[in-house]
Amino acid sequence: GRGAGSPRDGAPRGMALSSASDGNIYVYLEVEISNVNIGRMIFKLYNGIVPKTAENFRCLCNGERGTGLITKMPLHFQGAKFHRVIPGFMAQGGDFELGDGRGGESIYGGKFSDEAGGLALRHAKRGLLSMANSGRDTNGSQFFILFKAAHHLNGKHCIFGEIVDGHATLDAIEGVKTQSDDRPIAPIVVARCGQLERRVIGVKRVKRKKTVEEANSSGSSSSSSSSSSSDKKKKKKKKDKKKVKKGKKAKK
C-alpha cells in the first residue's frame, strides 16, 4: 500500500537538517481523538529546500485549491484521519478521500515527483514531516510524522518539515491504542488546520528565550536572592506575631 515504506539498500546518507533556510512557512493541525480536542501541532515547512512539497502541504492545510481533479473532493486536510499509528515509528494521515490509506491526491492533480532536497534529508528525529508514497515519484496528499529516528526511510521518502510546537498532542496520538493493522481504535481526526503568520511564531520564540535568560541570570544570583528572601520571611513572621498579639488584646 502507501505506507511509510520498507528498507531499501543503498539509501543516501544525505545532509543535516540544519541546512533549512530562513523564511519558512508555518502551518498547524488541530487534532481530535474520539471527538475530544487534544490540541494543536505547529509545523515549520522546509519551503526553501522542497518548495513543491511544502506548497502542496500548505495548500492542503488551507483548503485554498478547491476540488481535486481526480478525487473530485475538497483538497483539504480538515476532517481527514490519522489512519495508521505505529508507536515508536510514526503516525500517517492525509487521505482526505477514503480515510484508510488508499486515497487522496496532490494539489497538482494526482501524484507528483520526489524533490531531491527532501530525499537528501535524514529521518533523524521525532517530529519530522515526510511524504508517504507507494514508490518513487508517487507523492499525493498522504504524509507521516515520525515518533523517532527511522534511517531506513532515508532516500525513499521526501522530508518537508518538522514540529515546532504541540509536542503533547503528538504524544497523545502515539498513545492511542490500535488494532492489529495499526488503525487507531479511537478515531484521530484533523478538526481544523491552516497556515500561521510567521511573526506570531517569532514573538512566541522571543518570549521563550527571555524566560530562559532570566532563569539563567536569577540562577547565578540565587544565593543573594535566597538570603534576601529569608530576611523577608523573618520580617513577615514578626508582623504576623504582632497581629496575633493585637487580636488577643482586642478580645480582652
UniProtKB/TrEMBL annotation:
Transmembrane segments: none annotated. Belongs to the cyclophilin-type PPIase family. Pfam families: Pro_isomerase (PF00160). Its EC number is 5.2.1.8. It comes from the Eukaryota. This is Peptidyl-prolyl cis-trans isomerase. Residues 232-252 have a biased composition (Basic residues). The keyword Isomerase applies. The keyword Magnesium does not apply. Residues 28-195 form the PPIase cyclophilin-type domain. One of its GO terms (cellular component) is cytoplasm. The lineage of its organism: Eukaryota, Sar, Alveolata, Dinophyceae, Gonyaulacales.
